[in-house]
Amino acid sequence: MTTAMPVRETGRMVSSARGDGPRRRRAFTAAEKLAHLTAYEQAVTAGKRGGKLTAEQAEIARLKQELELKDKRLATTEAALDIMGKAVALLETISESAEQDQRPGKR
After folding, report:
1. CA 53 to centroid of chain Cα atoms
2. pTM score, two decimals?
3. Binning pLDDT at 50, 70 and 90, where does residue 77 land?
4. Which positions ≥6 away from 8 have C-beta within 8 Å?
5. How far is C-alpha 70 from the geometric centre of its chain's CA atoms?
6. What are the backbone angles phi and psi of residue 58, rounded to the nearest 5°?
């Protein structure tokens, strides 16, 4: 079955919507693809429904928030202990060097 192109009164054919040939597919760079995926993941969270949370979902959300707070506190405490350990080691080194300098007959 052939379809004829519409003809204007001037005798010229009217171009079709795809008269310029097939369109090229859009191409995205790896960075653009990653940005799209990141935006999608941020917009759609698994297991989350619209509306009011059930009691179980509210408890899970509260516990996750509490865990996050505890993790931050733990990281701060570990960093403080690390600093304290380094300070003690430095003070011991200074103390040992001061004791050696105070011994008689060293000069």
Report:
1. 25
2. 0.43
3. very high
4. 14
5. 21
6. -65, -40
pLDDT tens column, 84-101: 999 999 999 999 998 888
What would the pLDDT profile of 47-68 be if each residue is shown by its tens digit?
A: 666 678 899 999 999 999 999 9
User: CB–CB of 4/12 below 8 Å?
Assistant: no
Nearest to 3 by CA among 11, 12, 16: 16
Enumerate the domain spans of the chain.
Answer: 67-102
Query: Rounded to an integer, what distance in angstroms lies between the CA atom of residue 105 and that of residue 10?
Result: 119
Structure tokens at 4: 């004829």
Tokens describing residue 28: 């995205």
